[in-house]
Amino acid sequence: MHGVPDTRTLCEQPGKPAPLSREQIVQAATELAQEGGIDAVSIRRIAARLSVGATSLYWHVRSKNDLYELMFDAAFSDLPLPEPTRNWREDLRTVALSRHDILRRSPWLILLGIQPSIGPSIRRYAEWSLRVLEPLGIDRQTRTDILAIINNYLFGFAHRQTAWLQLRERAGLTVEEWQQRLDDYLTQARSADPALAADLESRLHLTSEKSFELGLDCVLDGIAARLITGA
C-alpha cells in the first residue's frame, strides 16, 4: 500500500547480497530530482549514476512509489528541531520556516504531493510537534489537526512558488530574462491599462518570503484563536 512501504522489500533479500544500499539509491534519485525535476528520476538513470544494473535496485526498492516516499522522508532528515521552549507559537513558526526553506530549495517535493509517510524523519517531526503542543492541555486529535493546518499551508504556498518557477522554465528564460520580460510588460501596461498594471504588480509579490510569513502568521493567529485560546 502506498504510504506504508513494506520494509521487507526495501532491504536486502536473504541470501542475495546487493552491491549497494537503499540509502545510496535514495541519494542518487534525490540528486537527479534536484538537477532535472521529478521526471528525471528513473530506475535506469539511477542505475547509471550508481554504475550498477537496473535490476539490482529492485532488491532495495520495489516500486517508484516506494522510492518517492523514501525520497520525501529523506528530504526532511536534516530538519532542525530545537528543544521546545514552551512558546508553542514561536517553536512551530521556527520549524515551519525551516520546512518552507526545504520545500523552496527542492520544488520536486511539491510534485509528489503530501505523502502519508511514516518514515523516520516525518515521525521525528510529528513527535516533536506533538510534544510542543502537549503543555497546552489540548487533546491529541486537536494537536494533529493543528499540524495538518500548518502542513496544508506550507504545501499550498509551495505549490504557488513551484507553479511560478515552472512558468519561467517553460518559457526557457533565466531569472534575469524573466524579470526583464515582466518589467517590460508592466512598463507598457502602466500606459495602456494602469488598473491592470496595478493588479499585476500586487500579484507579483505573492510568492515572496514576506508574503509567506504574513500567511504563516495569519494561520497561527487562527489556530491560537480557534483551537487554543478556548482550551
Strand segment count: 0
Helix content: 55-70%
Structural class: mainly alpha
CATH topology of the largest domain: Tetracycline Repressor, domain 2
For this structure, what is the CATH class of the largest domain?
A: Mainly Alpha
Beta-strand residue percentage: under 5%
N-end to C-end Cα span: 37 Å
**Helical element count?**
11
CATH H level, superfamily name of the largest domain: Tetracycline Repressor, domain 2
* Topology order in helix (H) and strand (E) letters: HHHHHHHHHHH
The overall number of domains is 2
Task: Summarize the structure in words.
The chain has eleven helices and no strands. The protein has two domains: 7-75, Homeodomain-like (Arc Repressor Mutant, subunit A, Orthogonal Bundle), CATH 1.10.10; 88-228, Tetracycline Repressor, domain 2, CATH 1.10.357.10. The protein is mainly α and 231 residues long.
Give a short overview:
This protein has 231 residues and is mainly α.
Structural descriptors:
2 domains; 231 residues; mainly alpha; Arc Repressor Mutant, subunit A; Tetracycline Repressor, domain 2
Protein topology:
Blueprint (H helix, E strand, L loop, with lengths): L6 H4 L11 H15 L6 H8 L13 H12 L12 H18 L2 H5 L7 H14 L6 H32 L3 H18 L1 H10 L5 H20 L3
Helix pairs in contact: 2-3, 2-4, 5-8, 5-11, 7-8, 8-11, 9-10
